[in-house]
Amino acid sequence: MIRNPAHTLRVLHLASWYPSKVHETLGNFVERHVQAISTRHGGEIWFAAAVPAGQTVPLDTTRKRGSYTERIVYFRARKPMVWHVTRALFKAAQSHADKNSPPFDLIHLHVAYPAGKAARQLAKRWRVPLVMTEHWTAYHGDQRQALPFWRRQSMLRTGNAATVICPVSEDLARRMRSFGINGTYRPVPNVVDTKLFHASSDANTEATSFRALHISSLRDDQKNISGLLRSLKIALPQCPNLHVSIIGDGDPAPHQSYAQQLGIADRIKILGEISLPEVAQRMRESDALILFSRFENFPCVIPEAWASGIPVLSTDVGGIREHLTSERGAVIASEDESALAATLVDWSQGRIQFDSSKLRAHAEKTFSIEAVARDYHEVYEEALSTFGTP
Asked: Do 334 and 224 have their domain in common?
């Protein structure tokens, strides 16, 4: 019997990406979704963490985190990955094997592969709805073509088994439909902790200083750090007041070397991974966020910037334009280094101003823990009310 969705539900979250002892920041946006949902509904989050060769396999962990329990199962990474992930997640399910009724009201899958096979099999076994959130850029053109046939098929089977599908942007929903995943789509954005990310109480009173910030994985194929650096080579001579920090959880060394080659290393700070509270502090100390990606869905750093009261300058890729209006920053064409440089010059010289309070208000209304928890509550209501109907 399906429980009334107005009441607290027991939700089983299955994650394809999630922070663990193997990779502490992998899928941290999934963790934040689970934390937001847990303000309304309890349950468990399970993640199967593949441990690369040469690393010691940690002991499995279970810990209580407020209204939900987090279970991480570790296994030695080997192919076929989907088979071993499924086996590990079914190991976690053994603790519920002797129960007569379904242990959860619904299953919420975060990213179709590789946890999707386990999600759809458990949903079928327990006869409960399957909700799927998708963050992955694998549905984009060139990346889609690079997917092995068997992985595409696994993603299709999982997506088409879902009762409700929740991409993080409308653009991703369109790409998933063209991929061949049909069904009910209800986009829900990434979540921002608006208590952690907030505007600075001390405005930048140094009229001669404009501080631009870039935060990403530092993957050059996606984030185009080399193009960003070439744009800065154009902008920096025109803007003695411009200070730029580039920060990410990738390797900063190649980008530091390229900045040296371009002769701009003395004007730019390029740093490795920092903690989320440090990211929030950097946002508060900055005047703008700049992104120069070749492809995206809708990166978390954009609403984090707005919650911090600063505008965003980004390439017009993925679902970014859905929220990035002229009141909240600017979009430029992908690979257009001259446009990025020209816009930075305008902003640093004060030719364009933004209302920090309006940026913050949009973040609170759309991306806050309360807003995203409300959105998922409505998704769960729909999934439970329509499950099993033709």
From this structure: yes
